[in-house]
Write a structure and sequence with these properties.
The protein is of the alpha+beta class. The chain contains eleven helices and eleven strands.
Length: 262
């Protein structure tokens, strides 16, 4: 279902700035309170839209859906990124799934998001965060650029939401939108494959119950003994050839690692 076909704009259109409507379209029908006010929506209009039984519903603290109907996985992933802020990317079990790795843990309710080291964002609802050092952290005197941040991210695509991929590719060459930033419909930033695996197996508190990166059998078994192998560093892990070769097409409608940016 196209999100804007069910968006509740009819009674709010006169109160919602056009630029905010555009931002919502880029973000798969989701917006934040901060974005709405920055786009010029009045506080009274915001309160009216987000009141109890109002037109817009709360997904996370400060993040709202502008449409009716059930949330898809895409919307939960987008909400996690909107909560986490600029230069965030999906990692952990969801990151492994988005890369098409079939030996990782099944993604669950919790979504782990990688954020810059200096970010002050904390966990909320179904979102957990893990901080990373990035190129802009290593040289604080240098102003972070669009390209310096991009090196940390791959992109996962929901084909139904993204629509014409040529349009999405063209959007990646445009200057970031002042409200929605670099968001594009159906396109979700995800950390590189190896980082997703590291963030999964070295953070056991976020692992699904009953899943382990190591085999319980002393001699290993056909499935897990070739999936993940520890390095001599102990806490660091790397992908085996079989894990990399085991990428599979996304069975929920997405594409792992679609190259949509320069």
């Amino acid at each position: 279902m196209d999100w804007h076909a069910a968006a509740n704009w009819s009674t709010l259109a006169i109160m919602v700035p056009d630029h905010l409507l555009y931002a919502a379209r880029r973000q798969d029908g989701l917006i934040t309170r901060k974005q709405a006010l920055a786009a010029g929506m009045s506080l009274d209009a915001w309160k009216h839209a987000t009141r109890k039984h109002g037109s817009w519903r709360r997904i996370l603290r400060g993040v709202y859906a502008t449409f009716t109907g059930p949330l898809r996985e895409l919307h939960r992933l987008r909400a996690a990124l909107l909560h986490a802020g600029a230069d965030s990317a999906i990692t952990g079990a969801w990151g492994c799934w988005m890369h098409g790795l079939k030996y990782g843990p099944e993604p669950g309710e919790l979504i782990l998001v990688s954020i810059p080291q200096q970010s002050r964002v904390g966990p909320a609802g179904f979102v957990a965060v893990t901080r990373r050092a990035c190129s802009s952290d290593k040289n604080r005197s240098r102003e972070p650029t669009r390209d310096s941040n991009r090196e940390h991210h791959d992109y996962w695509v929901d084909q139904d939401a993204a629509g014409d991929l040529s349009v999405s590719i063209a959007m990646s060459y445009e200057a970031p939108d002042e409200i929605a930033g670099e968001a594009r419909p159906g396109v979700i930033p995800v950390v590189p494959t190896a980082q997703a695996v590291i963030d999964t197996v070295t953070k056991p508190r976020w692992l699904p119950a009953g899943w382990s990166p190591t085999c319980a059998h002393a001699d290993g078994c056909p499935m897990c003994s070739t999936a993940l192998e520890p390095t001599v560093a102990g806490r660091a892990w790397h992908l085996s050839r079989r894990l990399l070769a085991g990428r599979q097409a996304d069975h929920r409608g997405g594409l792992p690692l679609v190259p949509l940016v320069r």
